Here is the input.
Amino acid sequence: MSNWTKRQKELALVIVATVLLAGSAAYSYFSLYAPARDARLQAEQLLSSEKEVLMALQAQQKAAPVAEKISTSALQQKVAVEPMADLILLQIEQAELISGTLVTAVNFTEAPLTLLQPVEGLENVQEIITTVEFNARDYKSITAFIKEIEAMERIMVIDSIDFASNEEITTQEQEGEPLTVSVSFSAFFRPDLIKLEDTLPKVDSPAPAKKSNPLPQNDGTDLVVSSDSAIEASSENGEENTDAVVAQTATVHTVVAGETLLQISRKYYGDNAGAALIQEANNLSGSVVKVGMALTIPQRP
Here is the structure.
């Protein structure tokens, strides 16, 4: 290299510098510029497609009819923020009246909703499980009772229906025993939405059916006087209390297994006509009597 002239050395340096510069440019283009350019082109294409989707959605939104707003009160008719067991009890009473059945027991149980697979948005949903036991004349009465329960506006699910069938009636003299039925169903509520408590459905409590409230009322009314107190008061005042006398002279009969209202009537009155008196004296809505019931047997007028 020492034999190179000055001009040859300068030319070699220029060539080396040119090669290095070209290599740096190629490296910068393929490793930096080209990927950045491709990424920018992809972003522009993605932005363009998203703009088209947005425009299409806006057009659909403008063309769609205006959705009707639903109030929270209407939504709570289906899923309330409280168990609302009183509303369920009123529906059971209505089903009992329409189907002609006799409810013997009602139980409520509150528990978190259990799902086979978790669903987003249902983490705080709880259920109130209602179990109703009642006596029915026939299968038609059972169907009518269940239809009235399912007519509730509230979202509910029938969990189970259990009943025991009676023996077949083969003679006219046999009297059919009532069917014992147990129905279990679930309704749902959201206790975490406590801020919506003010929009809970209102409960229209029915008037008492020939019943007196034994608790003291802060409205100036007196407590209902018991029959024993009424008898003592009437004897002290020298007045006769006819209601108390009737209560004293009436017979109390405890229903045993296999007994019917007609059999009890024949036992005390000698015929079937006394069944109406026993129904009226005990406020019975039907002819079904349950084992263990204490029935007041009034004197025939």
User: Anything to note?
Assistant: The CA atoms of residues 166 and 177 lie 7 Å apart. Confidence is low (pLDDT under 50) at residues 218-231, 233-248. The longest helix spans residues 6-63. The first strand starts at residue 102 and ends at 112.
